[in-house]
Design brief:
The complex is a heterodimer of chains A (about 375) and B (about 1450). With about 375 residues, chain A is of the alpha+beta class. Chain A is built from twelve helices and ten strands. Chain A has a four-stranded antiparallel sheet. In chain A, a hairpin with a 2-residue loop joins strand 4 and strand 5. In chain B, strand 31, helix 32 and strand 32 form a beta-alpha-beta unit. The longest helix of chain B has about 40 residues. Classes of the chains: A alpha+beta (about 375), B alpha+beta (about 1450). Chain B: Keywords: ATP-binding, Endoplasmic reticulum, Magnesium, Membrane, Metal-binding, Nucleotide-binding, Translocase, Transmembrane, Transmembrane helix.
């Protein structure tokens, strides 16, 4: 799409040469005859008409439809299972547990949900818990945290940020971790059992490490480092968040997954974008290459039901899913590509018709019509 | 008026002038300390800034805060600091120049040292005596006390004040002339008190007294005051006392900064900014209510994510909602385009720079550019609808060329001179073609064959230096000698008329004869004496200053007598007593002694002086040696006496107005040369008589009310007191005294009067400026009586101007007519083409001129403003009632004539309801009942005054609007501005006023855009203007190209800004539905804040500065494209809303594609928000890409830069600090996203689908209903041949995309000729009232046509038309709009003469500029001959057919065209 300005450039030089010969003696105020100053920069001047944009539409159409099909197929190959265990209906196993509003129950309420898999889950299975209607993106909620406390800053540990109010101190002691996000940590415990056809229940190994971002685990979140390596000692003088049953240093027995670097905490602290979200809970790793990670059959999900959602009409789900290169199961993008591609193709056809009908009376006809 | 006392007693008395400003100037606004508070204070006067600071402060309230409070200050601080830096820079520059000025040196008298010492300007105090030397600049306003000039004069150049380069004379305070006439002025002896008025900014007024110790009081006038900033010239030394210093000087008080105008586009934009505020508030309210409801649904059951207030208390839904409202105001603040204001300023500065740099707007002859004086209304240039133009100096060159004259009733046509002038034109065109000018000289010589030897000689002598005569060369030469105004060879070399030359020679020989026979001058035949007086009057009745070129700016000293003008009665008595000669010569300088004693006296009946030796004998002594050959008898003697008068013909005349110079040069051609001018004396060199000194008693300067000037001199030949008056013919003719009772003489006088009037009419019809020359001889007694009152008037303090005016009126009566002159004011290059092109662009052009009607009309014809085909309505009325009737008549006439063509019922209504047409806004052309007809309106100043009355202005506008061209003659500056104001306010149109003189200043200031021509007539117009052009011609490119570009660039940029901000804000708004309307933002606050300032700022600036929708060539070839801006087609109100809707659509796409793509996933807030930000950026940039018409490498670079900047900033930002930037804390987000295929997939599909509708719409629009601009763009791309044929065809097209305003049919004449017959005649009411409403122009004395009323003129013009003039004249123009666009095609088919090749013919004149000479336009000259007078009455409405039409210009053009190929016509249109 080159421009045809060369002739005009010549014109410019020509007129420049006509200038006063004595220009050297008296500095003329004549403007420089440069392409920029005279606005003659070489330029591409696209004109949008049916004829010119036609190829673009067809190209987009032809590119998008295959991509969309590919995405759709990929998404469809992902296995996913969702189990809602909120227990709002009286018939559901967790109904009794769900009636509880309170956070601090002395006796844990356990319920179990049975389900069956029709098809085996072949590769690594990711276990999520899903919450609905939970506005983790609420403006004041999102702000209610102290990143430097979570990063192991001792000052912040004792003196948490004001953003944490009103979950900053409890009984005069600073809360660790402070803020509303930490305070509302999801505290249901999920356990998965495979019901062998022979009747035995085998608990499925759930990996609790590696569910958080690597940078979060290793850079953003750090336990405070004190004189002694004992977390209990370091967190001495802090209070546990109001809604927690255990203090932060008792979240896990594994010292690499305890305190602020507990991955469940880290995952929770990454506030979800939308009110319906899922968060990675555990990973079920594929053990052998021969057998599927989760074979067909019946399973039982045992839930230690702690997390009240009735106050906000929330739902709780357990999701088992395999993932592909493009993440979890989501057919939307495939459909979107196919749709947009088809629309482009269709519009391309429309433009082709327009071009054939009206394009012939192109510029010259336009001027005289 | 309260005066102010200014004592001057030398610098010693410091304490007493404490209350006067010192001379240190400080134009800076700030000091180091005050800069910050003061600048901020000023910036907060802008409402927008206050608003943004308010928002930033809101953010500091914890309950509301949406962003980090510090961060939210960033944009405000950015905007404020950009402005502050700009202000600081400007202030620093001012400071530097102040410092420079303050430290200039000048000589100040010091009492301590009893002498003048050098001091800095800033140390000068009021009351100091300063000594000024030649070429020094005045440090303060100084009262002139002494001058080394023997005449007690001081010449100053006021170029820095008003740009006028001619010298002005200033005089020493009168009492000091007597006081220190001989010796040096001694400040120690000074002991007077000066009382003067308070400092004011009126450059032309200064009043005060000087009170001497003796108690004597003397008036002080502006002639005594030297103003700061002027340069002393021609005076070796002057001493003065400082009156006003520093900031109290008139120059400083006049120094007001640039005006701030608000462009139409900006006004429109502000409306939409207001709508943005409304949208913002609606969105905030919606969110607040939503939040309240959302909270309300939870009732008492507090969800855990609803965080309690910091105090741990619960917020009620209502209170939360109120808080949230304010929070949302902060969050959505981007919707109010904070950076838009800054961006617009930046873009406008760039645009101004680019316009300034345009080489096409550079005038080589004067080495001047276009100047943009107003920085913020560039886009208004693209939206003009009405142009109000001055005539003289704007359309014409203001180069006055003497053309012909009539003396004593005999006309001297100066044919040779006319031929000479014609040759300049030929030379001009020749010069363009070939550089070798071998052919020029012979031709020139042949043209000048019978000229006197001098002219031929001259042409040879100049040949070596410059190509003779060509106009461009002449101008170039005049640049070289820049100091002399109005002196190109064309103006200087006047070829005398042989007949008149004979008379002059006869006259001189008679004088010669009489001299020997000692006959009194009165015996000279009256015709010859008239000739003599005529030339004397031409020579001396002016204010021309003579200087010699060898010593530029050195006054030619040629003194015969030293005497100041008569100032007192004693003076008068002293001078007019018999002893006068001896006493008078006392003070004469040695060099002039010889001649001063020999002041010749021809016999004088009135003053029987004892020095009756005043015969002509002695005159012989005064012959100059270098008197030209060709005069009957070579000179005998030359006593010279004068200090080296240079050889004849080399004197330079510096005139304040060019016509004065023209007359002086004309007189010189007849050997009656002005040799020197002093305030009290004019020296004239006459053939055979040598140098004559006229004692100049009074000069009654020109003013626009009197329209004449007079000089009172003592005639050296007769010793009579003679008044020479020169002025506009209308006034002079009224002042001519009644013919003597004596039969033969009276008869002759009557005859002369009659003849002169006829010739005057003829001159005017030829487009010449006419001046009448008259004289009057005063008896001594009469003079004494008059002098008394005049002196009283001169010394009066109060109302001096009025008294002087009356005094002049008393003197200028009973004049004796000598003759009249016709001066041609030549049209500027390319004026007709420019006007034609501007008119095709849909601009209404009105010419407002002070000239008389006939001259104006003829210039209007010459520059194609009026068309010979056009009917002309002339409005000349005597009274308010007559004016009302006339307007009514015209309305009826227009209505009845054009009614059938405008079927809209509203047309019928407008007569009853005049308010109908000032409905707000300009109605779209299709709906307006006021089609512009083929009518011209001519109105004179007096009628204009009536028409501008409140009661009539609506009717006047109704008439004027329907006319294609309007010509207001004889209008005063005030009327000019009133007309502009009226049109601007009532019609709500954009007006442009263009002019060059001081009389255009008010008009220029009133108009939306004022354009000054930086020509010769001073700089006042330029100073008042927004743009200053070197030539009228450049208006075409300025408006059609730059105006169009600036407008479309800015309009598109503003729309884009609104879109961009709305799109970002809408993204956040949609999110509110998914975060409980809590004011949460998924776009990182840093990105959000800097999105406008950094990431998306550059591409739009580049596009806003450089985008060209259509190339300059096409814009000029197709002026119709300008209507795009006139009709505001780039930015209509609905476009704002369309953009808003598009923005909301695009944001929906940009929001929901990521929404669904990430629905129910483990994505966190900012990992989800960052892709949205990125794809919003892509979408916004691609959107700009669709709207960009011209892609240069700068566009590509800026887009690449924007994207690069975003990602690099994001990557840095996201890896910099793991714990900072609460709450988003986006550590490593972008890095993770870049590894996520989903991110890329979204980034591809979202912009594509978001922009799909717009892209598709643009493509369809381009194919199905392309706008004129788009067609123009296609034309740009088409190959040259296609382009050529299209262009030539487009001239024929009517209903096509260009004829937005169908009434503007560009080539009426031809079209009408061939197509009119084909149309069904419309039922014209033939009974146009033709009542003989003879409303004659008052003051049209003598035998001027009495019946030049409206109907006659109508008749006169219609008589040139075809058989059915009125129907035919209108149909073609109204047809296209009522019929389908296929109309013109019909024409094309039905009429073979409308073949496109014929349509190129109007381009022919382009090829030969000025091929239609002023005088040779037959329709023009016939039109005004009062043919209707004889017929008169109703029957004059019967259409008359004149043969003229057939042989007229159009046919001629056609013939011409047949041998002009398409090729050449194409090329010429490109010019």
């Amino acid at each position: 799409m080159a421009s045809g300005y060369s002739a005009k450039e010549e014109d410019g030089h020509h007129s420049g040469a006509l200038g006063p010969a004595g220009g050297a003696a008296v500095r003329s105020r004549k403007p420089d005859n440069t392409a920029f100053k005279q606005q003659r920069l070489p330029a591409w001047q696209p004109i949008l008409t049916a004829g010119t944009v036609l190829p673009a539409f067809f190209i987009i159409g032809l590119l998008f439809i295959p991509i969309g099909i590919g995405l759709y197929v990929t998404s469809n190959n992902i296995r996913e299972l969702q189990i809602d265990y909120t227990g709002t209906e009286s018939s559901s196993p967790c109904f009794a547990c769900s009636q509880n509003y309170s956070w601090n129950m002395t006796t844990p309420c356990v319920c179990s949900v049975s389900f069956s898999l029709d098809q085996p889950f072949e590769s690594n299975v990711f276990m999520y818990y899903g919450l609905s209607n939970f506005y983790q993106n609420h403006r004041r909620y999102v702000k209610s945290r102290d990143d430097s406390q979570l990063n192991g800053n001792l000052n912040s540990l004792k003196e948490p940020s004001k953003e944490c109010e009103p979950y900053r101190t409890n009984d005069g002691k600073p809360i660790a971790p402070c803020g509303a996000i930490a305070n509302s940590l999801f505290n249901d415990t999920l356990a998965l059992y495979y019901n062998d056809p022979n009747g035995t229940e085998t608990q499925i190994q759930l990996v609790k490490r590696g569910i958080a971002w690597w940078t979060d685990k290793h850079v953003k979140f750090r336990n405070p480092v004190g004189d002694d390596s004992n977390l209990t000692a370091i967190f001495q003088g802090t209070a546990k968040p109001v809604n927690w049953q255990k203090p932060v240093y008792e979240l896990d027995s594994d010292p690499e997954n305890n305190g602020f670097i507990n991955e469940d905490l880290i995952v929770w602290m990454r506030t979800a974008a939308l009110p319906t979200f899922r968060k990675l809970y555990r990973i079920i790793e594929k053990n052998s290459s021969t057998s599927p990670t989760l074979p067909r059959g019946n399973y039982t999900l045992k839930i230690t039901y702690n997390y009240p959602v009735r106050s906000f009409e929330g739902r709780k789900r357990m999701i088992l899913s395999t993932i592909s290169w493009m993440g979890g199961k989501n057919p939307f993008l495939g459909i979107a590509y196919i749709t947009v591609g088809s629309i482009c193709f269709f519009l391309g056809v429309v433009l082709l018709i327009i071009h054939h009908k009206y394009g012939s009376r192109s510029s010259s006809a336009d001027l005289t019509h | 008026r309260r005066g102010e006392e200014r004592r001057g007693e030398g610098g010693a008395v410091a304490g007493r002038e404490r209350h006067y400003a010192d001379n240190k100037i400080k134009t800076t606004k700030y000091t180091l300390l005050s800069f910050l508070p003061k600048n901020l204070f000023e910036q907060f006067h802008r409402f927008a800034n206050v608003y943004f600071v308010f928002i930033a402060l809101l953010n500091f309230v914890p309950a509301l805060s949406a962003f980090q409070p510090e961060l939210s200050l960033a944009p405000v601080l950015f905007i404020l600091s950009v402005t502050a830096i700009k202000d600081l820079w400007e202030d620093y520059r001012r400071h530097r120049s102040d410092k420079e000025i303050n430290h200039m040196d000048c000589l100040v008298y010091s009492r301590a040292q009893r002498g003048y010492v050098e001091k800095y300007w800033k140390e000068v105090r009021v009351g100091d005596f300063i000594r000024l030397r030649c070429n020094e600049i005045l440090p303060a306003d100084v009262l002139l006390l002494s001058s080394s000039d023997p005449d007690h004069l001081c010449h100053i150049e006021t170029a820095t004040l008003d740009g006028e380069t001619n010298l002005k004379q200033r005089q020493v305070v009168r009492s000091f002339i007597d006081l220190v006439s001989d010796c040096e002025f001694d400040p120690l002896k000074y002991s007077s008190i000066i009382e003067c008025e308070k400092p004011n900014n009126d450059l032309n007024r200064f009043r005060g007294y000087i009170i001497h110790r003796s108690g004597r009081r003397d008036g002080l006038y502006k002639e005594n005051l030297l103003l700061r900033g002027c340069t002393i010239r021609n005076t070796e030394e002057a001493v003065g006392i400082v009156i006003y210093a520093g900031h109290e000087t008139k120059a400083m008080l006049n120094n007001n900064g640039p005006r701030y105008k608000r462009s139409k586009l900006e006004r429109q934009m502000n409306v939409d900014v207001f709508w943005c505020v409304v949208i913002l508030l609606v969105m905030c309210l919606f969110s607040a209510i939503g939040h309240g409801l959302w909270l309300f649904q939870y009732g008492d059951k507090r969800p855990i994510f609803d965080v309690l207030s910091p105090e741990g208390t619960d917020l009620s839904p209502a209170l939360s909602a109120i808080y949230l409202f304010l929070t949302m105001v902060i969050v959505f603040q981007v919707l109010i385009p904070i950076s838009l204001f800054v961006s617009i300023e930046i873009v406008k500065i760039c645009q101004v720079y680019i316009i300034h740099q345009d080489v096409d707007l550079y005038d080589e002859e004067t080495d001047s550019h276009l100047q943009c004086r107003a920085l913020n209304i560039t886009e208004d240039l693209g939206q003009m609808q009405y142009i109000f133009s001055d005539k003289t100096g704007t359309l014409t060159e203001n180069k006055m060329v003497f053309r012909r004259c009539t003396v004593a009733g005999v006309e001297y046509s100066h044919d040779a001179n006319a031929r000479r002038l014609a040759m300049y034109q030929e030379l001009d065109s020749e010069e363009e073609e070939c550089t070798s000018h071998g052919g020029t000289l012979p031709r020139r010589d042949s043209g000048a064959s019978h000229q006197s030897g001098r002219v031929v000689l001259r042409s040879h002598s100049t040949k070596s230096h410059r190509r003779t005569g060509s106009r461009a060369e002449a101008k170039r030469a005049s640049i070289l000698s820049k100091h002399t105004a109005f002196s190109s060879p064309m103006e200087k070399d006047i070829t005398p008329d042989p007949q008149l030359l004979d008379k002059v020679n006869e006259c001189s020989s008679q004088l010669e004869y009489m001299r020997y026979h000692r006959q009194p001058l009165s015996q000279l035949p009256s015709e010859l004496s008239d000739v003599l007086d005529f030339f004397i009057a031409l020579t001396i009745c002016n204010t021309v200053v003579v200087s010699s070129p060898n010593q530029p700016r050195q006054k030619v000293r040629m003194r015969f007598e030293l005497k100041s003008p008569v100032k007192t009665i004693e003076d008068f008595i002293k001078r007019f007593t018999p002893s006068r000669l001896t006493s008078g010569s006392n003070s004469s300088s040695s060099s002039s002694l010889a001649t001063s004693r020999s002041v010749p006296r021809a016999s004088s009946s009135l003053l029987p002086s004892p020095s009756a030796d005043g015969t002509l004998v002695r005159l012989q002594e005064e012959h100059t040696a270098d008197a030209p050959e060709g005069i009957l008898r070579p000179s005998v003697l030359d006593t010279g006496g004068a200090t080296g008068p240079p050889e004849e013909g080399e004197l330079r005349y510096e005139a304040e107005s060019p016509d004065e110079a023209a007359l002086v040069y004309a007189a010189r051609a007849y050997k009656c040369a002005l040799a020197g001018r002093l305030p009290d004396q004019v020296t004239v060199e006459l053939p055979h008589l040598g140098k004559l000194a006229f004692e100049l008693l009074h000069t009654l300067g020109f003013d626009s009310t009197r329209k004449r000037m007079s000089v009172v001199v003592r005639h050296p030949l007769t010793d009579q007191i003679t008044v020479y008056t020169k002025g506009a013919d209308s006034v002079i003719m009224d002042l001519i005294g009644p013919p003597a009772a004596d039969d033969t003489k009276g008869k002759r006088q009557r005859k002369i009067l009659y003849k002169t009037q006829n010739y005057l009419n003829q001159y005017a019809a030829d487009g010449l400026r006419t001046l009448c020359i008259a004289k009057k001889v005063l008896s001594k007694e009469d003079y004494e009586i008059w002098l008394k009152s005049h002196l009283a008037a001169e010394t009066a303090i109060h109302g001096r101007e009025e008294l002087l005016f009356e005094s002049a009126l008393r003197l200028e009566t009973n004049l004796h007519l000598l003759g009249a002159t016709g001066i041609e004011d030549r049209l500027q290059d390319g004026v007709p083409e420019t006007i034609a092109s501007l008119r095709k662009a849909g601009l209404q052009i009105w010419v407002l001129t002070g000239d008389k009607q006939e001259t104006a009309i003829n210039i209007a014809y010459a520059c194609k403003l009026l068309d010979p085909e056009e009917e002309i309505i002339t409005l000349n009325a005597d009274s308010q009632e007559a004016c009302a009737v006339l307007l009514e008549e015209s309305l009826h006439y227009i209505q009845s004539k054009f009614l059938c063509n405008t079927p809209e019922p509203s047309n019928r209504a407008f007569e009853d309801d005049f308010t109908a047409f000032h409905a707000p806004g300009l109605p779209s052309p299709a709906s307006t009942p006021f089609l512009i007809h083929q009518l011209g309106l001519v109105i004179d100043g007096k009628t204009l005054a009536y028409a501008l009355e409140k009661s009539l202005e609506d009717r006047f506008l109704a008439v004027a609007r329907s006319c294609r061209s309007v010509l207001c003659c004889r209008s005063t500056p005030l009327q000019k501005s009133m007309v502009v104001k009226l049109v601007r306010n009532k019609l709500k149109v954009m007006t442009l006023a263009i002019g060059d003189g001081a009389n255009d200043v008010s008009m220029i200031q009133v108009a939306d855009v004022g354009v000054g021509i930086s020509g010769q007539e001073g700089m006042q117009a330029v100073m008042a203007s927004d743009f200053a052009l070197p030539r009228f011609q450049y208006l075409q490119k300025l408006l059609l190209v730059h105006g169009h570009w600036c407008y479309s660039r800015l309009a598109n940029m503003i729309l884009y800004f609104f879109y961009k901000n709305a799109m970002i804000v809408a993204l956040i708004f949609w999110y509110q539905f998914y975060c409980g309307f809590s004011g949460s933002v998924m776009i990182d606050q840093w990105f959000l804040i800097f999105f406008n300032l950094m990431f998306s700022a550059f591409p739009q600036l580049i596009t806003g500065t450089l985008d060209k929708d259509v190339s300059a060539e096409t814009l000029q070839d197709l002026p119709q494209l300008y209507m795009n801006g006139q009709n505001s087609e780039e930015y209509k109100p609905y476009m704002f809303w369309m953009n808003m809707i598009d923005a909301f659509f695009q944001s929906l796409v940009c929001f929901f594609i990521p929404y669904f793509a990430y629905a129910d996933s483990d994505v966190d807030l900012f990992t989800w928000g960052t892709p949205i930000t990125s794809l919003a950026l892509f979408t916004i940039l691609l959107h700009l890409g669709i709207e960009t018409k011209t892609w240069t490498w700068l566009n590509w670079a800026s887009i690449a830069f924007s994207i690069g900047l975003f990602f690099s900033v994001a990557l840095c930002y996201h890896s910099s600090c793991p714990t900072c930037f609460s709450p988003s804390n986006p550590y490593w987000t972008m890095q993770r996203l870049l590894g996520d295929p989903l991110f890329y997939l979204i980034c591809v599909i979202t912009p594509v689908s978001a922009l799909l509708p717009r892209y598709f719409y643009r493509a369809c629009q381009g194919s199905l209903f392309p706008s004129a601009v788009q067609v123009g763009r296609q034309l740009d791309k088409s190959p040259p041949e296609a382009r050529r044929s299209i262009l030539s065809q487009s001239k024929a097209s009517l209903g096509g995309p260009f004829s937005v305003r169908p009434a503007h049919y560009p080539f009426p004449g031809v079209f009408y000729n061939h197509s009119a017959e084909g149309h069904v005649s419309c039922r014209r009411k033939d009974s146009v009232k033709c009542s003989t409403q003879n409303v004659t122009e008052k003051g049209a004395g003598g035998n001027r046509s009495p019946g030049r009323d409206i109907l006659d003129t109508k008749q006169g013009s219609s008589s040139q038309r075809g058989p059915t003039p009125s129907e035919a004249g209108t149909l073609p123009y109204s047809n296209p709009d009522s019929s389908a666009p296929s109309g013109p095609e019909d024409h094309l088919h039905t009429d073979p003469l409308l073949d496109p090749s014929n349509w190129a013919e109007p381009a022919v004149p382009f090829a030969q500029p000025e091929c239609v000479p002023l005088t040779d336009s037959p329709p023009a000259s016939t039109l005004l001959r009062p043919t209707g007078v004889e017929r008169g009455g109703p029957q004059s409405c019967v259409p008359q057919r004149l043969g003229l039409k057939e042989g007229g210009t159009p046919r001629h053009n056609q013939v011409h065209n047949e041998d002009t190929s398409k090729e050449s016509s194409y090329q010429t249109t490109l010019l």
